[in-house]
Amino acid sequence: MRSIMVLNSKGGSGKSTIATNLASYYASQGKRVALVDFDPQASSMEWLAARPVGRKSIIGIDASGGNMRMPRNVDIAIYDTPAAVRGKDLSNYLRRPQSIIIPILPSPIDMRAAIPFIQKVLANGRVARRECRVALVANRCRENTNVYHQLSDFLKKVRKAPFISVLRETQNYNKAADRGLGVLELAPYLVRRDQDQWQPIIKWVNSKRSQPVNA
Ligand SMILES: Nc1ncnc2c1ncn2[C@@H]1O[C@H](COP(=O)(O)OP(=O)(O)OP(=O)(O)O)[C@@H](O)[C@H]1O
Ligand SMILES: [Mg+2]
Fold this sequence. Notes:
CATH superfamily: P-loop containing nucleotide triphosphate hydrolases
Strand content: 15-25%
Number of strands: 7
Radius of gyration: 16 Å
Bound molecules: adenosine-5'-triphosphate, magnesium ion
Helix content: 25-40%
């Protein structure tokens, strides 16, 4: 089973947005997808509850109590995680996935918080041994702003974790979330740019670079 976790201790960085969009992408590819929500806030579970009958189905697993049981024959598990994960909780989360995506917002507060967080993730044993691979995504970006350039310069400098894509700030994410859809399930003319920005993420999650070296 393939497993991908979306993780950042900072609240509101886009974890649930990226988790639900990844789940919808894999479902559209005909995969049996489990969307596992560790967050008591349950944004991913609410997204799934809003998903229209007739769209490719996704299995929802509420893991907010900390425990979960993976159903059989799941091709891919997408893990959404809560904010403020640190210390022992962080180590426990890092035990689970093959791949981790860390979304980061272009704001001074988010960037400052990201520095020690990324360091801690990269210092984890599984990550250091490349049993778990990490990538960085800039989220809610407006490319002509100074703060976006600061974020992009910072993420390019992180060694040991590739900076794989920049997602723009767009209401498409809210429109899609409202309806239990991924942005790539909205009308194609609305989401051409978003489609282009998701391509490198999809390429990474489908590449060996995102998978354990010993797999
Ligand atoms: N690229 C984007 N453009 C516009 N809005 C976005 C984008 N990404 C996320 N959002 C919005 O920002 C808000 C926070 O995103 P999200 O819930 O995915 O973050 P989170 O990291 O899961 O938050 P939490 O830490 O509370 O779980 C949501 O309202 C979401 O719709
Ligand atoms: Mg969330």
